[in-house]
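To the team - biotin complex, inputs and output below.
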Amino acid sequence: MKAKILALLRERKTYVSGQQLCEQFGVSRTAVWKAIEQLREDGHKIDAVPRKGYLLVEEPGTDLTREIYTQSEISSRMQTSWAGKKVYFYESIGSTNVQARQLAEEGASHGALIVTDMQTAGRGRRGRSWSSPAGINIYFTLLLRPGFHPSKASMLTLVMAHAVAEAIEEETGLTVGIKWPNDIVIQGKKVCGILTEMSVEQDDIRHVVIGAGINVRRQDFAPELAEKAVCLDEVCGRRVNRCRLLAAVMKAFERDYEAFEAAGSLEPLRASYDERLVNRGREVCVLDPAGEYRGVAKGITDMGELLVELSDGTVQKVFAGEVSVRGIYGYV
Ligand code: BTN
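Output:
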């Protein structure tokens, strides 16, 4: 209700009468008034003039000292049918991936989005932790209940990487790359990491959770990350609005997921993914448990494997679940 009122006031950009809001949402005057009061408590500036109604005075996020990051503000920005349609927002939580799995067990639906302002036990890939301080970054997990075979689930990570890249481009105008399979890279440095986890029962997916952490505000990265991590504000030269970016990610993901699901593969996204692939044409070191080797990355297959050409001209398909790659001169 709060989110719907907010979205409508933002769209209208003019005074909207209480009566109109009541009729639009089928609620009482008191309910509208209460929602307006709560929005004000959240920090929204809403002007109320007798016989004219309510006007959203200031767009949150444009004020440099203050950004409104709430469930209503995030929901009011959503332009999707199912991805992020239901938002679970927390000021602080252990890990959005863990919370998403818990909510999945309790019956949360396909497309539920779990967002927090900070994590106390953020998780990264390969058992690493993910530093998640308050007020400066985006930490979210999207819950999916796909109908396809579990063997296809690893491709969802690439779908999310592609969607995040598209959304950042749209919101900032920056050129965004993807380091296979799922790191988002700007100016050669990592701006977002993605962690996908799946629950399977026999041959069926019970649920998949895709978590992403996006560095937004300027911050002091841990010394081991300082050389290879970057935040959006720094490269963009202005403050990026976290709620708008989240909504843009959901919109891009919904579109990409539907294309992926209809094709049963990454074929519809492959060319676009390859265009952003920072490893393409570069020498990479494949960290295969059976033995490291080098080759030149060529692009991805429809199933999301990385094609790596070896010095003898043969081409290996590298599967993300088994190995990772790194550039031979550094992170990319
Ligand atoms: C990586 O190691 O690159 C993946 C990092 C994934 C971090 C995100 S933050 C939101 C979600 N919740 C977690 O605990 N991890 C992911």
